[in-house]
Amino acid sequence: MVPIPNLPTDNMYKFMAVCGVTCVVVSAVLAFQIAKEHDATIRSMSDSLREKISTSAAKLGQDPEQLKIFGGEEEPSDALKIRIDKLQLVTRNLQWLKFVDSVAQCTVFLVLFFVGGFLSFIGFFYWYTRVQKLQDAILLAQYVQETAKKA
User: Fold this and answer.
1) What is the number of other CB atoms lying within 10 angstroms of the CB of residue 98?
2) Which one, of 10, 24, 11, 6, lies nearest residue 126 by Cα?
3) pLDDT-derived band of residue 79, with 50, 70 and 90 as boundaries?
4) Contact at 8 Å (CB) between 124 and 11?
5) Which residues of 126-140 are buried (b: 16+ CB within 10 A; e: fewer)?
6) Distance between CA 36 and CA 39 in Å, rounded?
7) What are the backbone angles phi and psi of residue 94, rounded to the nearest 5°?
8) 60: exposed, middle or buried (Cβ count in 10 Å: 0-12, 13-18, 19+)
9) Is the Cα torsion angle 57, 61, 64, 67 positive or negative in sign?
10) How far apart are alpha carbons 78 and 105 in whole angstroms?
11) Nearest 5°: CA angle at 74, between 70 and 78?
């Protein structure tokens, strides 16, 4: 079993910095996953729309590859136009709902990202200015004492 490293709880500022960095990394990874999932959903909806239009065109006796909506020359029939419009409207509504959902999720991740960034900045800043400088001064004083004893 792999040992789990201990959290740096010896210093509050160090703990703040590590928690902030963790928040930044987690929010960035989750936001990218949501964006990737949104893109895959939009692609599948577009493929589904294309398939439904092709099926409707085939039922009405028209070649789906020849229709103007696919870049061809033939104009679709009125019944097919109505069906295509309905399917496109449903797809747009689904895309909009998925977009709003992903924006809400990304907003949460964005807030977490900035809070984590601020927390890590404050943690590292105070860690260095209030703790590390004092520890460096103590080490320097010990070094000077040791070199004075040797001389």
Assistant:
1) 15
2) 11
3) low
4) no
5) bbeeeeeeeeeeeee
6) 5
7) -65, -40
8) middle
9) negative
10) 40
11) 95
CB contact at 8 A, 34 and 102: yes
For 13-29, give the DSSP string. Answer: HHHHHHHHHHHHHHHHH
Euclidean distance between CA atoms 18 and 20, whole angstroms: 5
The per-residue DSSP string of 6-70 comes to PP-TT-HHHHHHHHHHHHHHHHHHHHHHHHHHHHHHHHHHHHHHHHHHHHHHHHTT--GGGBGGG
Query: Comparing C-alpha atoms, which of 34, 11, 14 is closest to residue 105?
Result: 34
Amino acid identity, position 128: Y
Q: How far is CA 106 from CA 28, 50, 78, 149, in A?
A: 9, 29, 41, 61
Do residues 16 and 116 make contact, with C-beta atoms less than 8 angstroms apart? no
Q: What is the pTM of this model?
A: 0.57
Which residue in 11, 17, 6 sits closest to 116, CA to CA? 17
Partners of 77 in the beta sheet?
none
The string of pLDDT tens digits covering residues 121-147 is 999 999 889 888 888 889 999 999 999
3-state secondary structure of 74: strand
The two three-digit tokens of residue 110, written as one number: 């964005």
Nearest to 33 by CA among 106, 84, 137, 100: 106
